[in-house]
Every structure is written in structure tokens, then in C-alpha cells.
């Protein structure tokens, strides 16, 4: 049973289905919630690690890469985010074709290997290869199957289940920066990275044992054409444009949050905790709005959250100059953007055939990869252009999230056939 006539497209009968594939979504039970648990840890080690980029941006600027400009250093987190999203279309098709098991196992190995290589890196290109390419490819092979499997087990409670899983990335974004900040002065950068890698390996074992799809894989021909055909669907095109612009603006404050705190006179230790504050609030923003979205509609909640992000940038971050303002913005922006991270897969699933969830999710994240690649370097260049100030970066961020909000509103109205006050 679907939530509304516009929410989930009917699934065509398939002669190759195994028994149980055509049964209604369980929407609960031990097996379904164990998938959520495994996905929680999968998000912890994949997107949760990516949420730590602000810590490494500041650390590299003052240590191994002190001779490079902020814009140049920012290519490390930018390429990392670009890689994890660019891998989306390919991982998505592999997920639809072969299921999650091989992807999860291979991704776990590659992700941990990348961090181990980063622990012995010393040159700029070392960090690019290990932390921006190898590790994110592995993380992508964990991230997308984790989300994709949840959609096969839940329908009425899909946003809540995804929000719980996505909160794993928030917890990772809280634990990892604190772990890094506390361990580097004690055991050094190299062993800190290895300690993080060993922690991830343990959690990934749980993910590999629990995350399974309810549906049998559907072997299909691979091709880049399938990626582009998804954009022929107007609701999906509007959603992809919303995600592109919103993410372009969202990722910039995450990258420069620590350096911004330092520019406002914060101590090194306090400024690094801004990332933990952001991710702690993001955890709330991923669970509570997911519960609300199942009641009032995924698109309604996403639109409101994107508007809140816009208001926070222009109303709090841009005019504020104190330590307190920086901390309030970090927490509130984490709350609003956490909703985006948690509900995005549910938005795709709502307008898609569930058997194409891997391809469609990958296509959306593939478009976001361009925003991820461009956002941080643009932000670094704007800081340089402002003579070390942040106002140009803040204005650019606000404009991007505002445009993203407009497209979220347009996609909501299209699906609701112009009705403003309706569940969608």
C-alpha cells in the first residue's frame, strides 16, 4: 500500500522473482531492522568519514601542506566528495545487477586500504590518491548499497528507516573528528589514521553480515545511456537540479567551518569542535524529520529544511561575527542539512520503480559530484579574493542553497500537480 497516488510507482511483475519478492514491504521485523543497523554502521564509516573534511582542511593547511594555498588544499576534500558521488551511477548499476554482497566486501577492503595509504602519505599527490580517490571509491561501494537495501524493506516507514541509518554518518562525523583531534597530539598523524581504519574495519564486518536486499538482483546491460535516460522524467530532473545547487552550497560551510572559526579568533581546539557540533545536530536532523516526513510527505519536509538552510546562511552566518554565532550556525545548519542527507534517497524512491533505485540514486549523486568538485575550490578562491575574509564565500553559499530550495519547491509542486497544501 502506497502513501499516496504520487508516491511509489507500481512494480511490474517479473517472472524471475523469487518467492516473497512480490509480497508487500515488511516495514519492520527483525530482518528489516537488522538491515537498518548494518546500514547505520555503513554510513558511519563512509559518509560519516567524509563529514570530517573540515578537520583535515585545517590540519593540512598548518602541517604537511602548509606551503599550499587554502584553495589548493581544498581540492583534497573536494575530489574526495566528487569521487564518492561520481561513483554513484556505476555502483548503482552494479547494485541493481548483482546485489549488495560483492560491493560491500570489495568496498570495505578498498576504503580501509585508502586510509592505510593516507597514514604514510607526505606529499600532496599522496593525499589525493589515497584520501581523495582510493578511500572514497570504497566508501561509495558501501554507501549506496546500504541505502539501496533499506528501500526494498520499507515503504510506509521508509523516511524514518533511512533517517536512522543516515544518522550513522552524523555519529561518525561527531566521533571521528574528536578521535582525530585527541589522537594526533598523542600518537601522531600516521597512527591516528590507522586507528580510524581499524575502527572502520570492525564496523564494516557488521555491515557485511547484516545488509541484504529483499529483492533478487535484476541483471541488465551496462551503459552510460541508462544514466542519461533517467533525466527524461521531469520530477527526477527537477529533483536532480535541486540536489545539485543545494549540495553546492551545503558542502562549502562543512569544508571551511574550522578555518572560519579560527578566523573569528577561536582557539584551535574549539574551532575543530565546530565539526562535531555540526554533525551532532545533523543526527537529530536525520531522524526526527524522517519520522515527520512519513506523516506529512518527504518533499514537504525537504523543501522546508532547504528554506531553513537559506535563512541560516543569510540571517545568522553572514551577519554574525562572534564565537557564539559560529557555534549556533554550525548546530542549526547541521540540523537543516541533516534532513537533506537522510531524505534524499527516499525522494528518489518515491518517484521511481523500486527495481531501478540503484540506477536512479546513482544518477542523482552523479550530478552532485560536479557540485562537490567545484564547491570547495570556489570557496577557497572566494576567501582569497576577499583578502582572507569569508563574506564572499557566505554570499555564494546562500545563493546556491536558495536556488536549490527553489527547485525543491518546483519538484514538490510538479508531483502534487500544483497543490500547495497536500502530502507529497
What can you see in these coordinates?
With 424 residues, the protein is an all-alpha fold. It has a single domain, classed as Growth Hormone, Chain: A, CATH 1.20.1250. The chain is 77% helix and 0% strand. The protein contains 16 helices and no strands. It has helices at residues 30-45, 47-50, 53-62, 70-73, 75-86, 88-98, 101-119, 124-153, 158-210, 224-229, 234-263, 268-296, 298-317, 323-350, 357-385, 391-415. Helix 7 runs antiparallel to helix 8. The longest helix is centred in the middle third of the chain and has 53 residues, at 158-210. The radius of gyration is 20 Å and the shape is globular. Its main location: membrane. Residues 235-424 form the Major facilitator superfamily (MFS) profile domain.
Summarize the structure.
77% of the residues lie in helices and 0% in strands. It has 424 residues and is mainly α.
Class derived from helix and strand content: mainly alpha
What's the CATH first level?
Mainly Alpha
Under CATH, the topology is which?
Growth Hormone, Chain: A
The CATH architecture would be Up-down Bundle
| DSSP helical segment count | 16
Cα gyration radius (Å): 20 Å
Average pLDDT value?
85
Q: What's the SSE pattern?
A: HHHHHHHHHHHHHHHH
- Net shape: globular
Q: Write down the domain tally.
A: 1
The largest sheet, given as strand count, sense and whether it forms a barrel, is: none
Query: Any idea what the CATH superfamily is called?
Result: MFS general substrate transporter like domains
Helix coverage percent = over 70%
Amino acid at each position: 500500500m502506497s502513501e499516496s497516488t504520487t508516491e511509489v510507482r507500481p512494480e511490474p511483475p517479473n517472472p524471475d522473482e523469487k518467492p516473497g519478492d512480490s509480497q508487500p514491504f515488511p516495514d519492520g521485523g527483525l530482518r528489516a531492522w537488522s538491515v537498518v543497523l548494518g546500514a547505520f554502521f555503513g554510513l558511519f564509516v563512509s559518509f560519516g568519514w567524509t563529514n570530517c573534511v573540515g578537520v583535515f582542511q585545517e590540519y593540512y593547511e598548518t602541517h604537511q601542506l602548509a606551503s599550499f594555498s587554502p584553495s589548493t588544499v581544498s581540492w583534497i576534500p573536494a575530489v574526495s566528495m566528487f569521487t564518492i558521488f561520481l561513483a554513484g551511477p556505476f555502483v548503482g548499476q552494479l547494485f541493481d545487477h548483482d546485489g549488495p554482497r560483492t560491493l560491500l566486501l570489495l568496498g570495505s577492503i578498498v576504503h580501509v586500504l585508502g586510509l592505510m595509504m593516507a597514514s604514510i602519505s607526505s606529499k600532496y599527490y599522496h593525499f589525493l590518491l589515497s584520501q581523495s580517490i582510493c578511500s572514497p571509491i570504497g566508501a561509495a561501494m558501501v554507501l549506496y548499497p546500504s541505502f539501496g537495501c533499506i528501500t526494498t524493506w520499507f515503504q510506509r516507514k521508509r523516511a524514518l528507516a533511512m533517517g536512522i541509518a543516515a544518522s550513522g554518518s552524523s555519529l561518525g562525523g561527531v566521533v571521528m573528528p574528536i578521535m582525530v583531534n585527541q589522537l594526533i597530539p598523542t600518537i601522531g598523524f600516521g597512527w591516528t589514521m590507522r586507528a580510524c581504519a581499524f575502527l572502520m574495519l570492525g564496523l564494516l564486518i557488521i555491515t557485511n553480515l547484516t545488509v541484504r536486499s529483499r529483492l533478487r538482483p535484476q541483471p541488465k546491460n551496462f551503459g552510460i545511456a541508462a544514466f542519461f535516460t533517467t533525466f527524461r522524467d521531469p520530477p527526477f530532473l527537477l529533483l536532480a537540479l535541486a540536489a545539485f545547487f543545494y549540495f553546492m552550497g551545503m558542502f562549502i560551510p562543512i569544508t571551511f567551518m574550522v578555518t572560519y572559526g579560527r578566523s573569528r579568533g577561536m582557539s584551535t581546539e574549539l574551532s575543530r569542535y565546530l565539526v562535531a557540533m555540526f554533525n551532532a545536530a545533523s543526527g537529530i536532523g536525520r531522524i526526527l524529520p524522517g519520522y515527520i516526513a512519513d506523516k506529512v510527505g518527504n518533499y514537504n519536509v525537504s523543501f522546508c529544511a532547504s528554506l531553513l538552510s537559506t535563512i541560516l546562511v543569510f540571517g545568522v552566518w553572514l551577519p554574525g561575527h562572534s564565537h557564539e554565532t559560529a557555534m549556533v550556525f554550525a548546530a542549526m545548519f547541521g540540523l537543516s542539512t541533516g534532513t537533506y542527507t537522510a531524505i534524499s534517497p527516499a525522494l528518489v524512491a518515491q518517484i521511481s520503480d523500486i527495481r531501478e533505485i540503484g540506477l536512479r540514486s546513482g544518477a542523482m549523486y552523479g550530478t552532485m559530484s560536479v557540485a562537490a568538485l567545484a564547491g570547495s575550490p570556489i570557496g577557497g578562491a572566494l576567501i582569497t579574493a576577499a583578502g582572507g575574509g569569508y563574506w564572499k564565500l557566505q554570499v555564494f553559499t546562500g545563493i546556491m542553497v536558495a536556488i536549490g530550495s527553489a527547485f525543491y519547491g518546483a519538484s514538490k509542486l510538479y508531483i502534487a500537480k500544483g497543490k500547495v497544501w497536500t502530502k507529497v
